[in-house]
Design brief:
There is one protein chain. With 156 residues, the protein is an alpha+beta fold. It has a single domain, classed as Alpha-Beta Plaits. Helices cover 33% and strands 23% of the residues. The protein has four helices and four strands, in the order ααβββαβα. Strands 2-3-1-4 form a four-stranded antiparallel sheet, with helices on both faces. The chain starts with 12 loop residues before the first helix and ends in a 10-residue tail after the last helix.
């Protein structure tokens, strides 16, 4: 049996730039551009099936135990979220959870409590639940403002 060396084929620059635009390079989590797309798709689905979308905006996140900055790559999001929910990194110490198919407004705070309990994180939290025909940018802005994030702009 012979083993041949396989030459690695470099990724085209356009593909690399597209990936960098959609995903956070240090965590692999969706970034802001992909977050906006996921919220738009969730809102379309919610309107069709008569449900709501919740946005949980976690700002100034730090470890609850020692107050240190939180490395997002080590957070066990999947243990408390559904497979079709989205977690996106929006800043150095901020992330957003998009919760699909909520039956009522009380579901979003319950999910936030599960995330906080499982991750042991501390910081500011903003919660917004979709209104009929509300644009994604408006929903995200309401959640950001609830979390005290005033320098976030939906104009990207």
């Amino acid at each position: 049996m012979t083993v041949e060396a396989v030459e690695e084929i470099p990724m085209p620059k356009s593909v690399s730039l597209q990936y960098e635009r959609l995903f956070d390079s240090s965590t692999g989590l969706p970034g802001i551009a992909l977050l906006l797309d996921r919220v738009e798709m969730a809102l379309v689905r919610a309107l069709r099936i008569r449900r709501q979308v919740g946005v949980l905006w976690f700002a100034e996140v730090r470890s609850w135990r020692d107050g240190a900055d939180c490395p997002f790559s080590g957070i066990p999001f999947r243990s408390v979220l559904r497979l079709d929910d989205t977690v996106a990194r929006v800043s150095e110490r901020g992330f957003v959870v998009v919760c699909n198919d909520l039956e009522d407004e009380e579901d979003a705070p319950a999910i936030a409590q599960r995330v906080l309990g499982a991750t042991k994180l501390a910081g500011r939290l903003g919660i917004a639940v979709s209104r009929p025909s509300e644009p994604a940018r408006v929903l995200l802005t309401r959640a950001a403002h609830q979390a005290g994030v005033t320098n976030w702009s939906p104009g990207w």
